[in-house]
Amino acid sequence: MAPGKLLTRLSIWLALAAYAVAIAFRRRFNGTTERQRHARLAWTLGCAFFLAHVVFAFAFIHHWSHEAAWRETARQTAELTGWHWGGGIYLNYLFAALWLGDVLWWWIAPTHFDRRSRWIGILWQGFFFFMVFNAAIVFAHGPARLLGIVLCTALAILCWPRLQRHGTDPSP
User: Fold this and answer.
1) Sequence ranges of the domains in the chain
2) How high does pLDDT run on average in the chain?
3) Contacts for 55-62 with beta carbons within 8 Å, 24 or more apart?
4) Which comes out higher in pLDDT, residue 119 or 56?
């Protein structure tokens, strides 16, 4: 495998691993807990690895062309669904912007971050899980799909108790 493609794949799996670690460490924020600091660091690293993944994908796979990324997204979507649509690339852009915004929010206003509406957390984690599920299972092939199934199952198990608790934001 070419080094650029390897960096692209490795960076996304590191992002997903950091996301899982953040979910595992997340507890009710009180500003001083070690677990909370670890969760925020993992969340930040996950976002950084995801942004690196986007840069690597554009540099090594799409040759800095949005049009090429759109065409490849459309090709993969058509292969799976029969619908030639590349708009999924915009969901990736939105995902990157939202994750970066979430990280900045947690660092800049951690108390406000923790007090955000439970529904914001549920919607965010739902979108996050949708993106991870599609990338790691639906569009993945071979061993990566199996790893994606394990990852998504673990994330569901980690998030489910938080979703059951009234008033607790399920976000990392």
Assistant:
1) 3-164
2) 89
3) 56/4, 56/7, 56/8, 56/11, 57/8, 59/4, 60/2, 60/4, 60/5, 60/7, 60/8, 61/4, 61/5, 61/8
4) 56
